[in-house]
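Give me the fold.
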Amino acid sequence: MKNRIELLKKQIGLAQVRAAARDQRGIAAVEFALVVPIALLLLVGGLDYSDAISMQRKATLADRTITDLVTQYVTIDTATLNLNLAASAAIVAPYSSANLVMTVTEVTTDDHGRATVVWSQSYHGTKREIGSDVTLPVTVAQPNVTLILGETQYTDTPTIGYAITGTIVLHDTNVMSPRLVGTIACSDCT
């Protein structure tokens, strides 16, 4: 009789376990609690990532546009360079131009392809030293040429994902040849 009572207790416990396994009443809440943090992380990450892609595109567009404008001059001065560089603020809008650094540099190469700075001007940054060496991309490094080098840097602080990524620095470099003359003279660049 005693064995039978113990067997009934085990069967009742087993029946309760089976009943609990068949009970579906809290599964949706548990699944929701597991999925929501992952879904929110994906949403926030996607928003910050798409914003960074848009800013990179704006920085690239500013770099190409300003470099292209400068290549169309026969002679130039620092006031005109500053005016052209300041136009990059309108290109990166609606993003803040305070985070934008844009530098335009005329570079000339010698017989061996060594590139040096002829003149340089920068917006929110430091211009290159006249006579300093510049490393050009291998695809454009040629002997005895003059090139206009445009460099853009945009510092982005993600709105929500800052704790994960920190500050992101976006770069773009563009090299173009002067269009109308062999060398664009800058009258007051020092």
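DSSP finds five helices and seven strands in the chain.
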